[in-house]
Amino acid sequence: MMLPFRDPSKLRTKKVVFEDIYPARDSGTLEQLKELSSKRRVIEESINQSNFITEAIAREISGGLTSHCEQDIKKLEQYLPLLENLVHNVGLVVENPQFARLTLDLKIQWSSALTSSPFFNLMGPKFFQINNLHFDLGMTLFLYGAILRDWASEVMSTDLVQSATIFRKAAGVYLYLSNEVLRSLQPALSSERPPEATPSLSNVLSLICLAEAQAVTIRKAEEKGNTGGLLAKLHYGVVQFLDDATVVLQSTIEECKYISIRLVEFISSCRALHELKSCKYLAEGLKSDGHIGIAVGVLQHALSNAQKNIPGEESWKLVFKQEIDNLTGLLRKYEHENEFVWREKIPDPDELPVLEGKKIVGVIPYNPQKWERELVFKI
């Protein structure tokens, strides 16, 4: 399993009233703008935790959904097509200088959940204002991917297949966000921007979601009693996804001065955890094949590396130490058996087999729902 990390969904936003900014030429356009503002306000109240309705009322409004994540996903899926439609219609008249000035009055503001700065938390979350509809679309999609990811973690205890599928959907959302939305936004961004508005961070989140989807898939494989050799490769496949994420994260750090230290530690800690699990299964496979001396060497080397990578986060540390305890017990067992029965030579670290990875999950592409409604503005 991956370590818990729900920071990406802790975004905040401020109120936007579209009908006060864009002058509607007809009643149909005005109603659509009001509906857009209303749908956005529902999301704003939910993520800002400023809506104090009871759980029973929230469940009734959402059509019986009991999960807070599912409720928020439904709200986002109702807002996103309307926002996409507005982006399209505004794009048709954006060259008009008068209309372009109107967009500057939107005052679209979002906080960042993955910014790390000593100055940002003194007066609450720092809000970034970028008066561009693609910014609102990008941040809303980032939130959508993050809540899908939270929901995948939520259902993991009851349905591993559904959990892996949702993680893959979240990965697809982030890939779409990076390739189709944020790249066109970059010229409009100032030097002060939230990291969530950079394509590279969306790519990082996409890779993290794939790593999590593979980790869930491994749990299913473990339940089916797959062999140690395959499980070792699958766990190292998680490591490879996270290695890719680490490389891309360096681009984000170059673009944005302050990146969450917790995000960096989360990736490195998950990487170390799954490398440890890969070594465990590799050792079990080697022992089954009659190579107990090499198995002992693999476990000794893995435990030595693990001690250097224990995370600081207490909940992560507990998971990590539990895995270390499991490997320590297995090592003692193998060492005892080798000492009294097999007496095989323990190879040096540079003589140990190299870990091999196997990636078996891919993104489920995100296809935005298109609502082609004509909006007519006074120009």
Describe this structure in words.
The protein has about 375 residues and is mostly helical. It is built from twelve helices and two strands, in the order H-H-H-H-H-E-E-H-H-H-H-H-H-H. It is elongated, with a radius of gyration of 25 Å.
Describe this protein with a few key phrases:
379 residues, mainly alpha, two-stranded antiparallel sheet, 12 helices, 2 strands, 63% helix, elongated
Fold blueprint:
Elements: H1 18-21, H2 27-47, H3 55-61, H4 68-93, H5 97-103, E1 109-111, E2 127-129, H6 133-155, H7 160-185, H8 199-223, H9 228-255, H10 261-288, H11 292-306, H12 314-342
Antiparallel strand pairs: 1-2
Any idea what the radius of gyration is? 25 Å
Would you tell me the overall average pLDDT? Answer: 92
**Assembly level:** single chain
Q: Between the first and last Cα atoms, what is the distance in angstroms?
A: 55 Å
Question: Unreliable stretches, pLDDT < 50, 5 or more residues?
Answer: none
Total DSSP E strands: 2
Shape: elongated
Number of helices: 12
Decide which structural class fits the backbone: mainly alpha
Biggest β-sheet strands, sense, barrel: 2 strands, antiparallel
Strand order of the largest sheet: 1-2
The helical percent reads 55-70%
What is the element string, with H for helices and E for strands? HHHHHEEHHHHHHH
| DSSP strand content | under 5%
